[in-house]
Specification:
Mean pLDDT is 75; it is low at 20-25 and 33-46. This protein is mainly β and 177 residues long. It has one helix at residues 22-45; strands spanning 50-58, 71-78, 96-101, 109-116, 124-132, 145-152, 154-157, 160-169, 172-173. The longest helix is centred in the N-terminal third of the chain and has 24 residues, at 22-45. The strands form 2 sheets. A 5-stranded antiparallel sheet has the order 3-2-5-6-9, with no helix packed on it. The protein has a 4-stranded mixed sheet with strand order 4-1-8-7, with no helix packed on it.
Length: 177
């Protein structure tokens, strides 16, 4: 029979079906399965994309030059199971942070803390802002003014978890060690 051996005989009106190698097909199936699992993990697991916190830092009646401090530090981190104390330094990896030079900042100081893949932003978080003379200080030092408040991310917009309007008043003084 013209066109091949009798085992490949087909009626003239049926198109010839091209067969793909099994390896290629299983690679496509695996890729689809992995992409589906990733999509489900993103939907169920919360935010694994970018996260940000926007707000402002107020210094009460003081102007930046009147404080005697050069820098403003702002940190956001997951709130622990214990009540917050400025003496308990947060040592985790999930931190959003920003530093400002106070002499060049307008009052109130606007900030936007951004990060990627911050873990589980669904629980309560805390923002801590303080004034310091130490550039890029890790935590509030003795007798440094600070302010803090709790907040929760809004993760209803897909992979981006965000919150706006987190305003912090720097109105407390850190106790001595």
């Amino acid at each position: 029979m013209p066109g091949g051996p009798p085992s490949e005989a087909r009626p003239f009106f049926l198109p010839r079906v091209r067969r793909f190698p099994r390896v290629r097909y299983s690679a496509v199936v695996r890729a689809r399965t992995i992409l589906g699992a990733v999509a489900v993990a993103l939907i169920v697991g919360g935010c694994s994309g970018s996260s940000f916190v926007e707000g402002s830092l107020s210094l009460g009646d003081l102007m930046p030059d009147d404080t005697g401090f050069e820098f403003a530090e702002v940190r956001a981190f997951p709130e622990g199971p214990d009540s917050f104390s400025v003496r308990n330094v947060y040592r985790g990896d999930e931190v959003l942070q920003q530093s400002f030079l106070l002499g060049k900042a307008d009052v109130p100081v606007s900030f936007r803390l951004e990060g990627y893949d911050v873990g589980d932003p669904g629980g309560p978080w805390r923002i801590l802002a303080w004034l310091s003379n130490r550039e890029d200080s890790d935590w509030v030092g003795t007798n440094e003014p600070y302010g803090t408040r709790s907040f929760t991310f809004d993760c209803t917009n897909g992979p981006v978890c965000a919150i706006r309007g987190v305003d912090v008043d720097v109105d407390q003084l850190a106790p001595p060690n």
